[in-house]
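Appendix B, record 7
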Amino acid sequence: MKYTKFNSFKPLYESWILGKKHRSIFGKRYDISCPSTQQSICKIEEAGPIEVDLAVETAKLSFDQASWVRQDVHEKAHILQVTAGLLREKISEIALKESIQTGRALREMNAQLCRLPEWLDYFASLIRTQEGSGKLFIKDSILCIF
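Structure tokens (predicted):
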């Protein structure tokens, strides 16, 4: 696949905290270039200590207060499967972007990324079939039986 334009990238990628772009107070930016052409693709903004602390605190607060913690296991499984489907729809686009910015062969990126939705589907099925009667500890070992 030949590519000559990088217009699918935004000019600047900032931190994403609480569902919104967050400009860094630290403000250091890095240019991301395509390894094969050396053409600039976009810039990314480095998160400073303030942004990192804010992201960690809000993620923890969101997790503690979120309905996900209290949500029914079947609804969690459904969300994982829907996410897997949405990801499947975007794999070609994501693979192309990753290939452009890393220089890795597009064929390899597609093959690797195709596994991600499979993992989400796998864990969704584990949630649905979890029955909890297995012993977790036998001597010094932990069993992976759900």
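Remarks on this record: The chain has two domains: 1-66, 71-132. The radius of gyration is 20 Å.
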